[in-house]
Structure formats: C-alpha cells, structure tokens
Amino acid sequence: MAATPLVGSNMLSLNLCCKRDSFGSAKSFVMHGVKPLNLGSSGKRRIICGCTAPIRDFRPADADEFSATTINAKDSSKAESVSMVREQDETDVLIECRDVYKSFGEKHILRGVSFKIRHGEAVGIIGPSGTGKSTILKIMAGLLAPDKGEVLIRGRTRRGLISDEEIAGVRIGLVFQSAALFDSLTVRENVGFLLYENSNMPVDQISELVTDTLAAVGLKGVEDRLPAELSGGMKKRVALARSIIFDTTKDVVEPEVLLYDEPTAGLDPIASTVVEDLIRSVHMKGESDVSKPGKIASYVVVTHQHSTIRRAVDRLLFLYEGKVVWEGMTHEFSSSANSIVRQFASGSLDGPIKY
Ligand SMILES: Nc1ncnc2c1ncn2[C@@H]1O[C@H](COP(=O)(O)OP(=O)(O)OP(=O)(O)O)[C@@H](O)[C@H]1O
C-alpha cells in the first residue's frame, strides 16, 4: 500500500500489528465515508474490556538520580547520572524518539527531540502553543514520518509511516482532541469500528463488548445515538472507549500505548476530572501480566490543563523551540528553577517565552 500521509483527524486507535489492507480499508472509509461496515461474521470469542490497575512506580530507589533535569543545563554531570540510571534497563522502553526533526515548509518545528516511553509510564508533554506537541504525537503514532532521526518501537526502528510496515511488539492508539468520531455512525458503530472491520467476532458479541467498554468509561444507554446527540465530554469518552476496545480473540496481546492529544480541552472542570480519572483507570501500571487485553501499558498526554498534569500524568516532558528543554516528575514542575518552566507554570508574560 502506498505510504499516504493521513490527513484530517478521523483516525481510529492504530494497531501496529493490523494488516495493511485492514488499515487501508479504515483509511478509505475515513476519507470517503462510503464504505459499508462489515457486519457479517461468525466465530466464538472471549470478551474482555479495559479496567483499572494498580500504580507502578518507575522512580529508582535514589529518587535524586531521577529528579527534574534541564537537558540543556551546564551541569552535564547531572544529565549523565540520569542517563546512567536509565541505561541500566532498556528492556521496558516501548517507544523511543531519537533526535527527531520535522519541518513544514520553512517552519522548523522539531529540532532534535529525544525521549523514551517506558512500560507503565504516564507521561505528559507540555509546552507553549505551536511547539510541535501534536506533531511529535503523530510521529510516534506513525501518521507522520520524521525528516531526520528515528522512532524505535521496542528497540526496532520504524522506517516510515505506520502503513508502510508491520511492527509487532506494541500497539499504539491515538485519541484526537476532537474525538474524531464518524458523524454518520452510531456510538456502537464508532466504538466497535475496528472489530466490525477487522475481526471475526460475531456482531452480537461485538455489540456486547461495546456495551461493556462504554460502561467502563461511564456511559450507558448511548449505543444507538449519533455523535451529534452527545456532549463534548461524552464524545471524548466514546473516543476513549474506541481506543481501548480490543479484539479478544487473539492469543498474544501486545502492550498498548495510548497517545492522547489534549483530552480535556474544552471540558468544564468536573468533566475534565472524569476524563482524567478514566485515563488513569484504563492504565495497567505495575500489573505483572503485560499482555492482558484491553489494558493500557503506558500513555502519553499532550495537555495545557493544570488539572490534567496534576491528575493524569506522573512524568513531564517540556517541549520548547523544537526540543525537550526540561523533564521531570509532575510534582517537580511547579517548583522548577528552570526559567522557561517557571514562566509557563505561572502564566507570566515576563520570561524567555515570547508570544
Ligand atoms: N500538516 C501540517 N502542515 C503545515 N504545518 C503544520 C502541519 N502540522 C502542524 N503544522 C504547524 O506546526 C506547528 C506545530 O503544530 P502542533 O500542532 O504540533 O503544535 P502544538 O504544540 O501541538 O500546538 P498547540 O498547543 O497550539 O495545540 C504549528 O505552527 C502548525 O501550524
């Protein structure tokens, strides 16, 4: 299949192990909106959906070794000590961006972005508007290819877009800010879309799984509604349900990394809390069985919301002028001495960030 960059925002949860033709059929549906759903299939399947899991702490015993780090700091020994701690165990790295560059025309957006997402992590990407947060998310998801640098999925370099090759070992889902539901499909059809399209699960079992998954995100009795009949918060929850629903017929289940692009944007404070708690609740931090269906091994959230930073993530990457200029644990954010971070956290007009 041709490596066509995906345009617009109507992407579903992406599965790196999905067949090319199945990915393509989803894409053609997205772009033309005319392909009928495949509702006819049979077979006996187990049904499991996303649920809660206890918290796993990735901080090393010596927490100082892992404290907030200004990457460009003059004190390189500190940065070195961090990398030494991390080099001890690379087996839990699910996604790595290594020196990633991306430009759009004359606009040089990403200029050497490097970070790792480890199994069990809840990572936030923050930074001023237009610094490329959504862009790096799309590059991680395989919707955009970097101009330079590498994206490694479980240590294996992805050569192009997600549609170019099949990489086993981890599934990556992207939940768009706009929820990106198909307007002409019901909630049931939206949530079960990939299963209707790509699995052999019988329709009634998919329907049951959709109901269970919607219940897991706090929605009941909305299966037959159209997206236009839902509030913004409900749409985001439907999008979340769609990203965690799972073909439970597979024997081997890879860990899944979910990428959320501003999941609480435009929501009132209480609706935000609901979504933030849902993001936590589908996370399977610390669980010994990494292959449990419907559970999210790690997630990355792009956000501007303080409540989301506090409530939904443990570690933060601060993106500014095309690079990660600071990273640290969430609790270290507000007390950071980094002038960029301090200005951002306080919302001050005075400081190195210019608008
Ligand atoms: N497909 C594209 N074509 C051209 N320019 C693009 C494209 N995608 C993003 N950009 C530009 O790249 C820059 C970074 O965009 P991006 O959406 O990644 O920023 P962001 O940090 O997520 O911003 P915000 O916080 O406002 O959502 C912006 O100037 C944007 O206009």
UniProtKB/TrEMBL annotation:
Transport is among the record's keywords: yes
Residue span(s) of domain ABC transporter: 95-346
GO MF annotations, alphabetized: ATP binding; ATP hydrolysis activity
Protein name according to UniProt: Protein TRIGALACTOSYLDIACYLGLYCEROL 3, chloroplastic
Record key words, sorted: ATP-binding, Nucleotide-binding, Transport
Keyword Transmembrane helix included in the entry's annotation: no
